[in-house]
Amino acid sequence: MSIEVRDIQKRFGRFTAVDGVNLHFPEGKLTALLGPSGSGKTTLLRMIAGLEQADSGMVLFNGEDTTHVHVSRRGVGFVFQHYALFKHMTVFDNVAFGLTVKPRRERPAKAEIENRVHRLLQLVQLEWTANRYPSQLSGGQRQRIALARALATEPRVLLLDEPFGALDAKVRTELRRWLRRLHDEIHVTSIFVTHDQEEAVDVADKIVIMNHGRIEQEGSPEEVYDNPASPFVFDFLGQVNRFYGHIRQGQAEIGDWTLPSPEHAEVANAPAVAYVRPHELEVHPDSDPATGVSLAATLADITSLGATIRLELVAPESQEPIYSELSKEAFVQLNIQTGDTVWLRPKKARVFLQPRQRAAQAA
Amino acid sequence: MTNPIKPGVRSDAGAAAVCPEGDWTLSHYVHLSRLIDTLSLNEACPVDLRQLGRLDTAGAALLVRALGRRRLIQAVEDCAELPAEQRDLLLTLSSVLEKEEGSVPDRRRQVPGLAAIVQLGRSVENGVRQSIGLLSFIGLLLVSACRAQAWRPAPLVNQIEQTGLRAIPIIVVLTFAVGTVVAFLGASVLVEFGATIYIVDLIGYAMLREFGVLLAAIVLAGRTASAFTVQLGSMKANEELDAMRAQGLDPVARLVVPRLIALVLVLPLLSFIATLAGLAGGAVVAVFVLDISLPQFLAMLNEIPPENYWVGLLKAPLFALVIAAIGCREGLKAGASAQSVGEHTTSSVVQSIFAVILLDAVAALFFMEVGW
To answer: Where is the ABC transporter domain (chain A) (predicted)?
Structure first.
């Protein structure tokens, strides 16, 4: 089932949590809502579930207006960050709960419920826990039970609110792979909220990046990573170096670099920032202005990250330390040491105007 | 390491910009604050921060005061050379100071005693709002109680055990003790008139009419209202309530109404037990200390009109309703943190004891007026 939200808005007192969001979640896909805390992603998810009422706007399931349908009639499965398992019930009863509380007319027969619960416990690979209590399970196991419970009522949509947020790093990685495989198996339209960009890129078919209650960018993981639409997205998705300079008629002048920036052709002269990812920043021992190797920097530190080497550099064009990542072989070939002056060239850079100019341009 | 340039603002008559220069730090605060008060800084011309030396929070606050927030933010954005920490400091401070401009009244102009009046007004408003909220919540509970979903025997029996059966020992001990105290108190006055025998009336009226039900209600307010708040609050913090709703269940009907019904059933019974224990306490003092024989005690007790007991018992369901509603409402209002659950627990105990005593006073007045 596909889901759509139109112009949806939600305020808490003076704080606008979700500010006129329009989104479409394609059928059978796993979509990640990504953003820093307070960006409105959880509120949006809860409005889709019906746990929160929107102030204005619509929620549509399969094109049908669902805005005022009660949460229990929407057919959603919801997985919470802190599992929200019922402590006083066994795992079996927890998973069966959604079925046993149905009105008698809709409730499946007892044998059928038992059957279904065991199938679900098999699916989450925790069949042996059926008679245990949630407190006897680990965090990762509890979250898988919570997932089984959400799936028990055969929901048309699965909503996950930071499902791995309370787990340690290793279990997180395992569980998100497992979630991806599970999704490939059952193909239910899923939306999951996370503030972890790595998790979103790893698992989702589509990523929606939110900030201050608005959408910054949406697209496939590759799209948003390769073509960030705004400085915020650049900063949020992975590490990035910032170089400060000016734009003059479609040319960004950052120190001795001249970078083409055709989208700002009509800007006469304005402060600008160039964003370069660490693995797209080349380091050379000598300058070569003809090929663009023209920005001087001092090598401040060398860190080994296992397979790659990270160089920490200092240049006047950036107030923060600059990082470049390269392979061990490339580093050995460079033959440089801490304190040396080296020359930089961006393989790929994106130039943005500084915030005030952007606002003026938009106006 | 001091900056050789004397801190100040350069604003030549012909120049196109205002340039703060030198160190804007706490050690120059007096000098700088006098300076910006005397200086009239041209509103229109841009600000150039390039000459700025060191900067701390005091200096940054002065800059915000001198230039105004809007101009300063613009200046910060224009000046690409500004170090990141100075940029952050100025931007943070200008947003903070702006908020305060709007919300903090000028202290110098405040009328003495105004704060107390304002405080009083706020708490009255808050009290009215709480009462309205509580009344509508009670309404919601009564409607929910009409639904079949709320009348499931298992949770109801469980709650009756938790709130009723287990509260009996403490209530018995407490009212027994109060019974003896009332007896001693009465005796110390009545003995002077040779009317010791009337302590039976004193104990009888007090226990049947007021203390039995009131003490039981206060124990429940402390013991059960807080337990309700903690149970529901922790379920809410744990998102269990949302999980129930997502599974198609109404937490009010499933969790709150059984508690309410249990309490309404249990409090009259507890009041009865409390009354008996209180009378027993009085009887022990009467028989062993004041030399009134037990048959005499019982005979006098027998002459007290039974309406007094019904008047007392009539209040029990009302108290139970209020205690359960306050306890559950605070639990549902609690936020996601353990601290919030704690705060709401305190609030629920205070509110329910307050409400019980207030209602009792109103009821006493009412029954007196109608002559029961």
So the answer is: 3-237
Q: Measure the CA–CA gap between A180 and A177, rounded to whole angstroms.
A: 5
Whole-angstrom Cα distance, residue A74 to residue A76?
A: 6
Give dist(CA A251, CA A337) in Å, integer. Answer: 33
Contact A164, A143 (CB under 8 A): yes
Q: Give the pair of three-digit tokens for residue B181.
A: 């105290």
Q: Class of the A239-362 domain?
A: mainly beta
The pLDDT tens digits along chain B (372 residues) read 444 466 677 655 455 667 777 788 888 888 888 777 776 666 666 777 877 888 888 888 888 877 777 777 777 877 777 777 888 888 888 877 766 555 444 555 667 788 899 999 999 999 999 999 999 999 999 998 887 766 888 889 999 999 999 999 999 999 999 999 999 999 888 888 988 889 999 999 999 999 999 999 999 999 999 999 999 999 998 888 988 888 878 888 889 999 999 999 999 999 999 999 999 999 999 999 888 999 999 999 999 998 889 999 999 999 999 999 999 999 999 988 889 999 999 999 999 999 999 999 999 999 989 887
Inform me whether the C-beta atom of residue A71 falls under 8 Å from chain B C-beta atoms.
yes
Q: Where are the domains of chain A?
A: 3-232, 239-362
Beta bridge pairs of residue A161: A193
B148 Cβ under 8 Å from any chain A Cβ: no
CATH of domain A3-232: 3.40.50.300
Query: What CA–CA distance (Å, rounded) separates A177 from A355?
Result: 38
| Chain A residue with Cα closest to B76 | A356
* Record: contact A80-B245, CB cut-off 8 A: no
Q: Cα B287 to the chain's mean position, in Å?
A: 45
Phi and psi at residue A25, in whole multiples of 5°? -110, 115
Q: What is the dihedral of CA B240, A55, A41, A83, to 10 degrees?
A: 10
Which residues 218-247 of B have a C-beta within 8 angstroms of A?
A: 238-240, 242-243, 245-247
For the question of whether the overall pTM of this predicted structure is more than 0.95, the answer is no
CB contact under 8 A, B248 and A71: yes
Question: In the β-sheet with A157-161, what is the strand arrangement from edge to edge?
Answer: A76-79, A157-161, A189-194, A30-34, A206-211, A214-219
H or E element that contains A100? helix A91-100
Rounded CA gap, B88 and B86, in Å? Answer: 5
Q: Would you tell me how many other CB atoms lie within 10 Å of the CB of residue B161?
A: 12
A53 touches chain B (CB under 8 A): no
Write down the ipTM of this complex.
Answer: 0.73
